[in-house]
Structures are given as structure tokens and as C-alpha cells.
Amino acid sequence: MRSPSPSRPSRLPRPARLRGPRRFAALLLCAAAALFPTAVPAGAAAPPPVPGTLQAYDIDSVFSAGVSSGGYMATQLHVAYSGTFEGSAVFASGPYDCARGQLATALNACMDTTQNLQLATLEQTTRDRSAQGQVDPVANLAGDPVYVFSGAGDSTVKRPVVDALADYYGRFGARVRYDRSTAAGHAWITPLGPNSCTVTQSPYLNNCGIDAEGALLGHLFGSVAAPGSGTGGSLIRFDQNLYAPGGSAAALSMGGEGFAYVPSSCAEGARCRLLVALHGCKQGYAYQGFGTRFVENAYLNEYADTNDTIVLYPQAAPTATLENPNGCWNWWGYLGDTAYARHGGKQIEAVMSMVRALVGGTGTPPPTSGRTVLSSTDAEDGYVKAAADGSGAALGTLEDLSGLALGRGTDGKVNRSLVSFDTSGIPAGKEITRAWLTVTRSSGSGDPWASPAGNRLLVDLRTGCFGGCAVEPADWSAAASVAGAARIDAFSSGSAVSTDLSAEALSALNRGGVTQFRLGFASAPAGTAYLFVNRDTPVTLTVEYR
């Protein structure tokens, strides 16, 4: 353990010194070579999961590990919260925020090599986010142990991409150990794996005759005792909804159930480490009956027993849509989460809530966090209509009868709606981490989302009011403080949640008074196609802070 220095703030919480479209179907992991060339163990039956909760233990260090999509998430956790995580083991994935929110970049630069991943840009983005407080100080990464692995047989995440990950960490002074010694396919390498070393196929648990876990844990911890049976503790099954922002794990493409392996020594009060282990695509508990195969066969519980280590196994889950059908972790910004790789990322914050629950009250407590839900001010809400070029603007008159209008009405005019919030209600002295709008459909006609195809609502933000705070015709085209602060994708009934407000929009929220938002379709529908929202209930603005 290293004592904190003035250049490296203490990491989150330790007792005294916490330092610290379908191609994604294949995105599933790989692993490492070993320091322990022991015979392949027979393996003992893992303890059955028992229902429970995440309790506080005496934890003095936290690490992340992951494979493929889980490897990308492990790096995101490490970089975003380097004050908490003091090292990471990453298999078959590339540098931090490689995808930059773009699926095409994820496919072509961060798995394949047909597109340059622009490593210098990724480095600068990290430094800029650090300076802006969107991730923890990058100075924390200096000296951190990082284990990187690439198998020669891995054609899913190609070797140059993983090379870039090792290079990325080196630019911040991390102590990188890079293992490129095997012909492994795209899989987690474990002595308990049923697959041969070089294949890439379910369950993506490959046996290469080596102890990869001894290698990665030895690098992260400095040294490790020989593994035990993996049966000397409890495998706890817990409710992930309790830790998901908004209370719904499914809304984040996470499973309802997560797991934590707690050795008896940790349960009895020993000082322990925490390892957050992240499976790859198609390896989550909820994916087509995959169950606990990763949890039981990753060969981490065996080391946990003899090295006083709790292993947290968060679970991603597939969506019913093409957003994430294979249950990958979010490393390219699916489901509209623009903050996926930094503070406020929905999955990142869910995992951090789990970590904080396990670390509990030891050491310095984490910053307090909370949420405020603001309702729009009815007297200052309304809609305006104009020709598509903004001419002939006039006030809408059907709000009381039908709600706030959006799209092209029967009169040929294009409607935009304005909603106003008293954002002075956000607690003073708190850092805003996320915010989003929720709207509810009242009625409509035609399909404005398909005219043109892929049409969506854009949300503009004005610090203060667009004109006077009461809606007026000029608001249709008045300048915004932040244009395109968020978007709302197609929905045909019920409520819809916008994407998170951009970082620029969060900064533009008026902490001393009113903030107005203007909603309108990105493209004016060609013919009559509109919807009304929030006839009976106000639009809400949800703000999370710490």
C-alpha cells in the first residue's frame, strides 16, 4: 500500500489511505497468461447462490477487471473513478472511450483496424475531462498496476487495438504488464474452461493450460497466495435495481440480479480487497440461460478464498431491441447514455453504488448524492407554431384541451413546445452529475417519427427564458444557450425519457432562477403528423447531484 501524497489524493473510501449491427454478438472477451504454471485443477463445486444484500466490509483497496466489453467497462471505471480504483486487468479491449459514442467507430477502430482509433485524441479527451471534473484526476493513474492481455488467435478485438490500450495507460505513467504470449481465441482464459485455448465460441471460457488469474492478480496485488477451492465463502445473489440510477436495472441494460463472492475471512472482519469482475457479451446471467458459468468458472473465487478478496460480479443484460441484444457492457453509448464513460454514466454509477455499499463506512465516506425532480411551471409552458422557415409564428391555443403540440398540424404549421423550470430548486453547493426530461404522450395523429425516417425530438436549453418567461411567438426561433442539449427518440404511448443533458447543458442550468427548454422535431414532417404531450401532467426535469 502507498500512502497518499499531495499530488495523489486519497482514494475513495479506505480506512486510512485509499489509493490506490449484430457484430457485437461476437464481442465477448479474452484472458491472460500465468505466473503459476501449475497443473490444471480439478475444480470444486462452487457454492450455490444465496439471496442477500451488499453489506459493508473492511476493504482497503479496489480493483477492476474485465474482458472485451467488460474490459472496456473496467477501464472506464478505473479512469472515471481513479480515486477509488487503484488498478485494472483488461483483456481483449482497447483504450478509454475508444468508440467516442459511435457504433461505427466501435466496430471499425476499436475491434477491427480499418479506422484509426486516434490514440492522441483519446489521451487528450481524458486529460480534458479530468480538468473539467468529469473524471477523477489523471494524476491518480501514475504508478497504478494495469494488466493487459491479447491472444494471437483473437480476431474479434485485433492485436493493434489492445496494443493501443497498453500505450494509452503508459502515457499516464501506469505500470503496465502486457501479455501477448498465447494463441488464445476471444475468451476468458481459465483452468476451469471447457473450451480449448484457440477457439472463439460459447461459453467463451477457454483452457490454455495456464493460470491466467494468478498472473493478473499477482500484478494487481503485488503477490498472491496459491488458490484454494473457491468454496470457502458465500456467493451472494443481490438485487441490482437497488443500485441502478432510476431504480430500474433493465432500463440500463443490466440484469435484475448481481453476484458477490465473499470469503469467510472477509465476512468475519478481516481487512480485504475488492475486485470488480466484468463478464463479456453473451456471458451475463440473464443471457439465454447462461447463468452463473462466468461467476463460477472465472477462477477468481479460488484466489479470493486465500487472498482475502471479495469479488463483485455485476451483470449486464440483453435488450429486446437491437440496441444491445447480446448483453454487452456499455462502451459505445447505447440507449442514449452520452455519459457512459465518465461520471454520471448510468452503468458506471450503478456499479459505483455497489462498490460504495461494500466499502461502507470505512475511511472517508463518499460524497453525498441525491436527486431532485422538478415539475415544469404550468403558467410558463405552452407551444408556438410557424411555417417550417419560422415565418408567421403564433401562439398555440389547444394546450388546455390536448396538451403541448409537436410536429405539423392540420393547418400546415410546425409546432414547438416550451417548458419552464425553477432550477434554483437544485440544492446549492452540489455538483450536478446528470439531468434529463420526461414527457408523456397525450394523443396524436400520423407518424411524425417516420417523416422523414428516424425523425426525433431535439431539446434546446435557454439559461433564463427565450424571451419573456411566458411563451410568446418569437420563442419559435429564438436563440438557445445550448442547442441540441438532449434528444427524445420515437415513442408511441406512455412516457419517454430524453437522453442525458450534455455537459454543456448541465453547466447552463440556471442555479439562481428559471431554465427553459424548447422541444421540436429535428425535421419538419412533410405532411400532417403530430403528437400532444403532457395534457394532464407537467413535464419533469430530473437532476442528480453529489
UniProtKB/TrEMBL annotation:
Superkingdom, according to UniProt? Bacteria
Keyword Hydrolase attributed: yes
Classification via InterPro entries: AB_hydrolase_fold (IPR029058), Esterase_phb (IPR010126)
Q: Is Oxidoreductase a UniProt keyword of this protein?
A: no
Q: Where is the signal peptide?
A: 1-44
Which UniProt keyword terms apply here? Hydrolase, Signal
Against PANTHER family, the record matches this protein to: POLYHYDROXYBUTYRATE DEPOLYMERASE, TOL-PAL SYSTEM PROTEIN TOLB
> What name is this protein filed under?
PHB depolymerase family esterase
Q: Which organism is this entry from? A: Streptomyces exfoliatus
